[in-house]
């Protein structure tokens, strides 16, 4: 009887450890974000944070950095608030967009910039209002849904080599387009994060083992 109890305890212990490891790995994938910094023609800077919500949905957060103060609209229908590209130009939907942006600012069609030769983008979100006086400080947050599936590799560069573009006002007060030419990839957990995860798994498993023995 005692041996049977020990075998059952060991099986439970093993299953709990396996479940904790799988849960930790799943959480890491779900929260695998990556920041990108864009700078073009001296206009700086913004970050794009991609968060994989599911196989068909991606959350995008665009945040101003390094003293950049506002998203602006300084062109005549040729400076987007924010624009991006997706492989194959799929049919998508954009939802949960942050205020003051709304559904009227979402454009699921191509957009060609002027000024710096940044090229054409698949989709864009216009900044509410025109001119630098109609600015806001963000962040710009929205969800992209593609029924066929979306991932970090879905975001591709245009023919000019740019993945994202934003119209911003930098720390000096200058306004213009800033672009990112870095390919999105899922972030790799830092060694310290992996150590913390491993320590937590072992600690939790140890507590459970003592409880069942």
Describe the structure.
- This protein has 213 residues and is of the alpha+beta class.
- Helix content is 24%, strand content 28%.
- The chain has 2 domains: 53 residues, no CATH class; 144 residues.
Instruction: Report the total helices.
Output: 2
How far apart are the first and last residues' alpha carbons, in Å? 13 Å
Helix and strand run: HEEEEEEEEEEEEEH
- Please provide the count of β strands: 13
Largest sheet: 6 strands, antiparallel
Helix-strand category: alpha+beta
- The average pLDDT value, as a whole number, equals 72
* Helix proportion range: 10-25%
Radius of gyration: 23 Å
Number of domains: 2
Detail the poorly predicted runs. 12-42
Oligomer: single chain
Strand content: 25-35%
- Rough shape? globular
What can be said about this structure in brief?
By secondary structure, the chain is α+β, with helices and mostly antiparallel strands. It is built from 2 helices and 13 strands; from the N terminus they run αβββββββββββββα.
């Amino acid at each position: 009887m005692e041996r049977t109890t020990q075998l059952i305890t060991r099986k439970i212990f093993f299953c709990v450890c396996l479940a904790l490891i799988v849960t930790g790995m799943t959480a890491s994938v779900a929260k695998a974000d990556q920041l990108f910094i864009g700078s073009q023609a001296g206009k700086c800077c913004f970050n794009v944070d991609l968060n994989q919500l599911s196989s068909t949905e991606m959350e995008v957060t665009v945040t101003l950095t390094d003293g950049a103060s506002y998203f602006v609209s300084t062109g005549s229908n040729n400076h987007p608030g924010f624009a991006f590209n997706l492989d194959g130009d799929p049919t998508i939907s954009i939802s949960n967009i942050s205020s003051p942006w709304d559904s009227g600012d979402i454009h699921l069609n191509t957009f060609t910039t002027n000024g710096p030769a940044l090229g054409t983008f698949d989709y864009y979100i216009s900044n509410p209002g025109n001119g630098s006086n109609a600015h806001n400080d963000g962040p710009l947050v929205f969800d992209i849904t593609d029924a066929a599936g979306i991932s970090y590799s879905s975001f591709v560069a245009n023919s000019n080599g740019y993945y994202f573009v934003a119209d911003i006002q930098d720390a000096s007060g200058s306004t213009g387009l800033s672009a990112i030419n870095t390919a999105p990839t899922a972030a790799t957990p830092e060694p310290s994060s992996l150590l913390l995860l491993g320590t937590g798994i072992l600690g939790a498993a140890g507590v459970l083992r003592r409880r069942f023995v």
